[in-house]
């Protein structure tokens, strides 16, 4: 019986549901991250090109130029890097964020059920999460941007790429040119962006969730009368608002500087 228990546990729907419930933040973050990464990567690729181009150009014209020179694959150049790392980054990020909030609750720090304490604990958890994760994500971010800008970099040098290098070859090129620390080019700005950007995101997210009726237990309560939406839409709404404003006010500006800093 003891030998069958682990096997049976995997197919025990009650145990599986309980495990998913306990880790719902991580599970939701992972599934949403994979979908959003694949759907939004072409826009991220165009954004990187816009940030480094010296000539003014419209987004449709730039997209047409990328398609003409590189084909459809040009919009997804370097996609495997975030797809591979997103599971670790998101799982670790949400784990650090939730464990930080639990630590504050267990030590009775900032535990009052008001918007200031709720937002502050979320912001602290986000800052700690962003700062720690940046040490592992910075090299992958650098390689991703380099891959997105391969044709632009070659054109700026008067070269033409017959066959673009693979991701592994891009890593080797950085390592051969600048050594191991070359993978951390622009790290200080990356660190500041991820620390304060993630802090601002979770500060806003938890504050908005409080306003929208989230209970101290973490479950969603009744939404306010001035915004009668379904409970299932509350996390989406709060996450969308927090994501747009945090990127608009901080992450996008520092992201621009760090992206320009990755160019050789």
TrEMBL record:
Pfam families: Mito_carr (PF00153). Keywords: Membrane, Mitochondrion, Repeat, Transmembrane, Transmembrane helix, Transport. It is a multi-pass membrane protein. The keyword Repressor does not apply. Solcar repeats lie at residues 20-103, 117-211. Belongs to the mitochondrial carrier (TC 2.A.29) family. This is Mitochondrial carrier. It comes from Somion occarium.
